[in-house]
Structures are given as structure tokens and as C-alpha cells.
Amino acid sequence: MRFENRPIILNDGLTYVVEPGTNIVQLASDLEKYGDLKNTFFFELYARLSGAASELKAGEYYLKGNSTPSQVLATLVSGKIVYHPFTLVNGWNIYDVIKVMNQDPDLIHNLKGKTPKEIAKAMHLKYSSPEGLLYPDTYYFTLHTTESSLLNRAYKKMNRYMNTVWPKRARGLPYHNQYQALIVASMVEKESAVVKERPIIADVILKRLKMWMPLQIDSAVIYGLEPHFSGNLTRSDLQRKTPYNTYTRYGLPPTPIAMPGPVAIQAALHPVKTKALYFVAKGDGSHEFSSTLEAQKKAVDRYQLGSKTKPIKKGKQHETKS
Nearest Cα to 69, choosing from 116, 8, 12, 139? Predict the structure, then answer.
């Protein structure tokens, strides 16, 4: 068997990084150490004679198991580098995003330990926080990509999406700009995972704003307790003075409270007109909607009271009540 056709990569394959300045001698040494290359001299000679020695392209590559010298060199001069996935999930807030990014070994962690305001500055945003401005999706990146550059891609995608759907919004909505719509969409995203409920929740929020009623959105209160929320929302938390306490403050929170997906955004831009003014979690992920305070109190009695635990909320159960 000719040398260039003899496998030099073991069966399970090898991920190899060609750093800038890597030469053929270093490559041969690495393949001898991590692969199954028996003769570095012949490998270096073959690489030089084929012209590949001077054409290596920097980047991370996956060398398939049983690859031959000719296949290895063809891969390393092709520029077909490895791309890693990062999925930004609907409903994550910026604290969730950074926590998961910080655990990814393939990213450069230039946002670790930064506050939302500092993250926004690192991303060169005009907003005080990137909250709600990142489009949930799976993004593919190359080795040594910075966290801020990856988030900027999600920010640009949200901008493109909003510029597409904003002109098609329902008439008569009270939003002064796209940002306010994202604030409402973020609350809709956190309040219910039931798709058919989301336009109704958006309608409740907008009606309460119009009537100058407190929104009483528990997920917004919880956001005001981040990043130190314990997982249990207590009655004392509902009295905590934060800009996100929608029990003690009127109007919208100052920023979104999570990253809304397209379904929640569409709900905020196309709310369903109902008589509902209140809603309470049933405990199964859905909600009971009421148009009067009396009916709401009965729903609260039915679904919320009777709990013997001190916390009124745990995890991602959400309710709005008066």
C-alpha cells in the first residue's frame, strides 16, 4: 500500500486545531503523537511535494477515522472547519444565557461575571440590557468565537425579525416602539407555554395598561429578584421595591424579562380581544381566565389556595391575580 493511502487516523477520528503559524513539522509530530502516523519524514516529504505544506489553513478540523495522509492534508487545506452549536432557548433570560455560555469550552468567555448593563456595553448596544433582544435559535460558531460576537448575531436576527413583523401588527396597539412590544412579548413568553393562551394574556396585559391597573405579573417580579432568586416567590417578595415589581408599580417594566420567541411576539402584536382581565395558573401549565374580580377570586380559591407551603410560587408556575 502506498504511503499516502495508508490510514494514519485511528477509528474514532481526531479533532485537530491548526493554529496560525502551524507548520508541517508540527503537524507531523502531532499526528505521530495523537494519531497512527509511523513515519513523520515521509509525511513531511509528501506534504511538501504535493504543495499542501504551504497551504494549511488555520482552524479546527475533524479528521475522520481511517483517514489517509492525502485525506488529512486535503481536509486541512480545504478550510472546512468545525462549527459548534449553541441553542438560545425561548424564555431564557440573560442570566440563563450567560450561565450556559460560560460552560461552553469552545467559546471565549469575555462576558463572564458581567452585569446586563456591562454586557450591553460589550455588545455596543444602545440599550441598558440585552434582555429580550436576542432571537431564540441555534447558532453555529467556530472555535475561539467570543460570547459577545455570538450574542450580536442573535441581536441582529431579532432586529431583522422585528423589522419584518412590526409593520404587520394589529391596528390600535398602544406600543410606541418595537421595544415596548418586546417587553410585553417577554411577559407573555414567561406566563404561559400554551400557545392558544398567549394572545389572550397579551390582551389582558394591554387592557390593564389602558385601564392603569397594575399588571401583577409574577414572572416580572421574579426577574427583579435575579440573579439571586431562590426559586420560591413569597408574599414578602411581592412587596420588594424593584423596577420590575408589577404589583407596586404601574405600567410596563423597564426592560423585557426574557427572550421571547416568535409565537410570543406574534401574540403581543396580534392579541385576541376577550373580556378577560385576570388569569390564574391551574397547576397543569394552563390558566383560568376571568372577566370580573369576583370570578377571579373564585378561581384563586379553586386553584391556588389550600396550599400549606409558605411560598406562593415555585419554579415557572405563573399567575396574575388581584
Answer: 8
